[in-house]
Amino acid sequence: MRTIESIANHFIPRKHIKSISECNIGHINGTYFVDVESERYVLQRINKNVFKKPEQVMANIIAVTDHIRKKQAQGADGCTLDFLKSGKNYFFCDEDGEYWRCYAFVEGECHQFCESTDVMREAGRTFGAFQQLLADFDASVLYETIPDFHNTEKRFETFERAVADDRVGRAVEVAEEIEFVRSRKNICGIITEGIKSGKFPLRVTHNDTKLNNVITDKETGKGICVLDLDTVMPGSLLFDFGDAIRFGASSAAEDETDLTKVYFKTEMFEAFAEGFAEGIGAEISEYELEAFPDAAKILTFETGMRFLTDYLDGDRYFRVAHARHNLDRARNQFCLVRDMEAKAEEIKEIVKKLK
Ligand code: GN1
Ligand code: MG
């Protein structure tokens, strides 16, 4: 861990580093906990394959966290991440051209799995409040660090290209999954078209609202802070809502292979939707609220399609633990989509009650 230590020193000079440990959660960046005297920091190597312009990722993050801090100085609730500088910058570029950044660890609990509706409601409230805090932030000043990140139509095109290229000869084995995606092509444009037409306003969105990106207080369960601001970009709040449901309203982990264990928990959908609507308050429009069910389904479908695309591409994007990992994840997400389709009426009724 010598090199990691010397990198950490660019952010935390003059202090004695006690220990460094690696954190393996997350599919994208390399993450390390750095313990220094009584404090802990999080040191991350930004994945350049995913984020082509790490300086822009950091510029977005600093703009958004500064804004939240200003709101808090004016009396708003909650906290946000505190990044450290290395010289003049909020990143450090090492001799291999790798980009690193560092922030103060936030004490609290990080749920890898949703155990209760209370946890889900609070996660909803925290992500909703994040939206609320940023409602007066001009989204157009942010860089689109991953262009078309949640543009499901573009994701569909990329998927079709991966099928046609069939780089590693896996297409034949996943004919059923390919058909699953193709037969749902018509849902891809719902959010994207809504943004284009102005039906869904462009906002600052988090874009990766998994439950484990919220820190909650261990004692009170109250949401403290939203993590992983890498994909903060202009977008629709439906991306944030849908992605959170995809993860938190599933009965099982994203890569559970026993699909009899994978189903959609409507009570979790309800809890998150209530919390989210409460957190964002009057900022949300009627159209956005009505589109909650579509958002949940589309974001789950899109993520499954991305996993399948990466499987067809030979696993070049998501970190995988074994050769079929991306396929397992895709099947899991599609199973959830099917269950959402089966429960569509029930889901619609829940949203009606929110109005
Ligand atoms: C990636 O690495 P992580 O867990 O923060 C991905 C998300 C996916 C998620 C699926 C930048 O997020 O979009 O929903 O995996 N992030 C990026 O687990 O592609
Ligand atoms: Mg992430």
Describe what you observe in this structure:
With 355 residues, the protein is α+β, with helices and mostly antiparallel strands. It folds into two domains: 2-104, Phosphorylase Kinase, domain 1 (2-Layer Sandwich), CATH 3.30.200.20; 117-352, Alpha-Beta Complex (Aminoglycoside 3'-phosphotransferase, Chain: A, domain 2), CATH 3.90.1200. The protein contains twelve helices and ten strands. It has helices spanning 2-11, 54-73, 117-133, 152-165, 175-182, 189-197, 237-248, 266-280, 286-290, 292-313, 325-342, 344-354, and strands spanning 17-23, 30-36, 39-46, 92-93, 99-104, 109-110, 203-205, 214-216, 223-226, 233-235. The strands form three sheets. It has a five-stranded antiparallel β-sheet, with helices on one face. Strands 6-8-9 form a three-stranded antiparallel β-sheet, covered by helices on one side. The chain has a two-stranded antiparallel sheet with strand order 7-10. A hairpin with a 5-residue loop joins strand 4 (92-93) and strand 5. Helix 7 crosses helix 10. The chain is globular. Bound molecules: 2-acetamido-2-deoxy-1-O-phosphono-alpha-D-glucopyranose and magnesium ion.
